[in-house]
Amino acid sequence: MRLIGAHVSAAGGPHKAVERAAAIGCNCAQVFSGSPRSWRRKPIEELDIDKVARAREQHTVSPLVTHALYLINLASENQDLIDNSMQALSYDLAFDAKIGGAGVVVHLGSHQGRGWDTVQELVLRRVATLVEQAPPEASFLIENSAGQQGKLSTDLAEIRWMLDQLASPQVGWCFDTCHAFAAGYALGKPNGKTENGRGYAVDEIDRLGLWEELRCVHVNDSRDPFASGRDRHANINDGLIPPDDLVYFLNLQQIEKLPLILEVPGIDNDGPDAENVRRLRAHLEEG
Ligand SMILES: [Zn+2]
Ligand SMILES: [Zn+2]
After folding, report:
1. What CATH topology corresponds to 4-286?
2. How far is the centre of ligand 2, averaged over its atoms, from the C-alpha of 231 (Å)?
3. Residues with beta carbon < 5 A to ion ligand 1?
4. N or C: which end of the chain has fewer CB within 10 A?
5. Which residues pair with residue 185 across a beta bridge?
């Protein structure tokens, strides 16, 4: 059975998120550890872990993935932003361990025009510190980006480099279909040369040897064209990713055991819903 999940609100506590995911037909889920608009978090000791465990058992929702704040930038030149980012990520790693989660998905941030070469050592040191100080059950998952405004990890080779340098079982990565498409990675079956892109995702992940460290797939359609460098998610089948290409990628044997997490706007703009779960499931049955 495939793992189909969605990013759901954890308002009221992570056990509520489990209920929300089950209500739209999911068997796994992704959450924020608190408000996505604020750095503030309630003390980790106040989390009611028994409630989460009971909800997960009752609804058979597993795994639970945590998504870090979008405010984070580990390549920033602003010390306050760095301090907040480090603190937020260290909280999320503790949260992941405490809820028995499957990792914290992180956007590393943006080099803001300085280039990857300039910031890579700094970013690496910061991630290494976080992972060293994290509970051993926690994991740090680097997400690929669409390429907007100097975002890090747009090129999958950067993720390969980070994983090699960190060389820890506590570090892996997450592949987002919208981001990959917008960054110029074609999702379909390799067939000649991709137009102004970076190649076929399947080929590039093979070439970089990245399947083994892949822990999670974000399944989103894209409102913007191939290689546009823009990050706007669309509902499944309502965006510009050719449906056959998405079907091909989602049915690759290399990802058949990984959680597939929807982060789509929803038909009513209310977040992932039962209709998107149905569309995703139809793609899986097709393949
Ligand atoms: Zn994503
Ligand atoms: Zn995105």
Report:
1. TIM Barrel (3.20.20)
2. 5
3. 176, 218, 263
4. N
5. 199
